[in-house]
Write a structure and sequence with these properties.
Blueprint lengths: L12 H17 L8 E5 L16 H6 L3 H13 L6 E6 L12
């Protein structure tokens, strides 16, 4: 459980606010809801919703993003664990774009 406050990235406040709310609520209710054994968060994912952006990312940037299959594999890993395992948070990020402090 996090005791500090995470900073929201400029321009991503609604998404970050929702993610932080889910994180905190799952930390509070998680132990009481044993059927919820995993929560997976993903960074930039190459999905069709990106076309809705004012300036959709180009093919080179999309190739560096996570692909839907990457997120699916992370989810499959989390739910394939035995019932005795609880994954309170699994974050998957695109290495070239968001990992190790990269935000370009």
């Amino acid at each position: 459980m996090h005791t500090g406050v995470r900073q929201a990235q400029v321009g991503k406040r609604p998404k970050c606010g929702t993610a932080m709310m889910l994180e905190q609520s799952s930390a509070v209710v998680g132990p009481d809801q044993a059927q919820v054994r995993a929560r997976v968060q993903a960074g930039l994912v190459n999905t069709a919703i990106l076309e809705q952006r004012p300036e959709p990312p180009g093919p080179e940037l999309r190739a560096r993003m996570l692909q839907p299959d990457d997120v699916a594999a992370a989810c499959l890993f989390a739910v394939s664990l035995p019932p005795r395992a609880h994954v309170p948070e699994l974050t998957i990020l695109p290495t070239d774009l968001q990992a190790l402090g990269r935000t370009a």
